[in-house]
Each structure stands twice: as C-alpha cells, then as structure tokens.
C-alpha cells in the first residue's frame, strides 16, 4: 500500500488555509490509489437509480465500498467515523464562524456546499 493523507472534506470544497486545512479530525491515512479514485466525490451510497455503481469502488479498495459519478461509500467499519468527522468540520468551520472560516455545510443538495447530510446522519449510527 502506498499511503497518503486523505482529506475527508475535500480541499476543493472550501479548505484553503489553516486551521481547517490541517485539522487532524479531517485527515485519515489512505491508500494513494483509492484516495485518487475518490477524488472530491461526496460521501454517500450509490443512488438507487445509478446504472454505473462500482463495487468495490476501486480494485484496491475494501470490498464493501461503492462509487458512482457523484458519491463514494467508504468501508462499513469506518462510515460512522467519516460521518462524525464531516459533521465536526461543518460545525467547527461552518457558516456560524468568523469570516475567515470556509463556511462548510452539509446538505442534501451537495452542489451547494459539501455533502449529503442524510447519508452522514445514517452513517453516524453505523459504528
């Protein structure tokens, strides 16, 4: 495994500077190839109507991962951890913070800000 640090909340969705960019609650060890495959997709399961859902999400990813054109589902054993990290980031660096904060948000319209809140609430109870 070629390791790297994965930003759970992608840098391209508002993380420009410290402290949000380097917050260790948002960085996890990851396989470089798997991290590259995820890119900046939102965390969540494949849409029920998705005809292009790949399982596993990458040939080097855990067998219980999945991905489509918009979403990436991590392994079951870490889905709750990922959800709590994303919720932490939204609270710590959300719209209620100082102007220098990136104003991160979770919603069910992820193109607005940063992620599927309904998936994160569901994942939170998983582990």
Automatic annotation (TrEMBL):
Superkingdom of the organism of origin: Eukaryota
Record's signal peptide:
none
- Which GO molecular-function terms appear in the entry? hydrolase activity; nuclease activity
> Quick check: keyword Hydrolase in the entry?
yes
| Iron keyword on record | no
Note the InterPro entries from the entry.
Endonuclease-I (IPR007346), His-Me_finger_sf (IPR044925)
**What are the alphabetically sorted keywords of the record?**
Hydrolase, Nuclease
Sorted alphabetically, which PANTHER family does this protein's record hold?
ENDONUCLEASE-1
Q: What is this protein called?
A: Uncharacterized protein
């Amino acid at each position: 495994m070629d390791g790297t640090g994965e930003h759970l909340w992608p840098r391209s969705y508002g993380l420009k500077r410290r402290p949000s960019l380097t917050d260790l609650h948002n960085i996890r060890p990851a396989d470089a190839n798997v991290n590259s495959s995820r890119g900046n997709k939102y965390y969540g399961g494949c849409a029920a109507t998705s005809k292009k859902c790949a399982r596993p999400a990458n040939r080097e990813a855990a067998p219980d991962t999945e991905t489509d054109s918009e979403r990436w589902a991590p392994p079951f054993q870490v889905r709750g951890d990922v959800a709590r990290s994303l919720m932490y980031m939204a609270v710590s660096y959300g719209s209620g913070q100082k102007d220098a904060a990136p104003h991160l948000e979770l919603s069910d319209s992820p193109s607005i800000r940063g992620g599927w809140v309904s998936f994160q609430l569901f994942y939170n109870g998983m582990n």
